[in-house]
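Action item from last week, closing it out:
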Amino acid sequence: MGTTRRDADRQASTREAGERPAGSGSAGARAAGARAAGGRAAGARAARPAGPGRARTGGRPAPRRRPSRATIVRRRIVALLVLLAVLALVVWGVVAGIRALRGVASADAVEPAPETTTGPVDPTACAPRDLQVDLTPSVGGPGEPVAFAVALVNDGEVPCLVDAGTAALVFTVTSGSDRVWSSGDCAAEPAERRLLLDAGDRAETTLAWSGGRSAPGCPDGQGSSGPGTYRVEAELGGALLEGATATFARG
């Protein structure tokens, strides 16, 4: 009988559980499912890695850290070293270019012409404009010859030749419009007398006039000149020498 009573109690408990309302069981199941889902979401958020440099504080990114003073100094030193290296490369390139151009110029240089030795240059004849002339007549007593002394000075800058012979250096005596005498009519010796005059050199020569008259070709019987005032002038190679004139009196 004891066994029958315990069986009856279990049956009664089973009937009460089966008669419990369905709504209360569903609400408990839903609450348990919600708690399980919340746990899974929290676990997923905790397992997700945070982005680089970002801290999960209210959903905003963390501010960037300012470089330290030592980092800034190191960066500036590196930049300066890079700049110096670039400048060194530029200077090296310029120097190499200049050396290359000099090498090309030296290779293309024209060989100097061989030296030529020249002998002494033959001087040319003195031009009348380069000669300074001083003509001085010297008169003796009545019936005596008149001596004409002439000095020739090379007033140019280079040596030159002058012919002081009687054929080139000619004296002519006139009295007014009367041509009295010329040393070229009856040329005496030496007919040619070539003198080399350096710049500033001086040459002298003297020619005498007996007082007789003459004509071109040296004909005889021209007579003699009388007392009076005469004028003498000198020519060189047919050109009148500037300043080579003088006046004298003959008794």
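Closing note: Residues 135 and 150 are 4 Å apart (CA to CA).
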